[in-house]
Amino acid sequence: MYYSAKERGFFDPAIHDPLPVDAIEVSDEEWQALLIGNSTGKQITPDANGYPVLTDPPPPTPEQVKVMAEAKRQQLLVEASMHVAPLQDAVDLGEASPEEVIALQEWKRYRIALNRLPTSAGWPDNIEWPTPPA
């Protein structure tokens, strides 16, 4: 197996012809160790000599952090809505138990809290995520 720092990938000479000009031979054992180590959240990157090594991924950019926070909020809103819908149905049809009425109010408050999370100053560095109802 060969590794190309420029291409940031592995190449098998039986399949890839020609190999990248910067390709460095990597033993099967080293290649397997890199692939197994990669499954722990590490990434394969070239060292100063172009040899593949496992490194921690770079921290997310501020924009990526914002995208991840908004995605989390949207997912939590979807989950909250899935709890609200059947409870609201029971209330609408007059078939809700007192416990279901209370649960509906709690899930709606939670959903409101999620929607009211500030998305301006400090977002998303200092998010205090609301706690979902039990």
Automatic annotation (TrEMBL):
<protein>
    <submittedName>
        <fullName>Tail fiber assembly protein</fullName>
    </submittedName>
</protein>
<dbReference type="InterPro" id="IPR003458">
    <property type="entry name" value="Phage_T4_Gp38_tail_assem"/>
</dbReference>
<dbReference type="Pfam" id="PF02413">
    <property type="entry name" value="Caudo_TAP"/>
</dbReference>
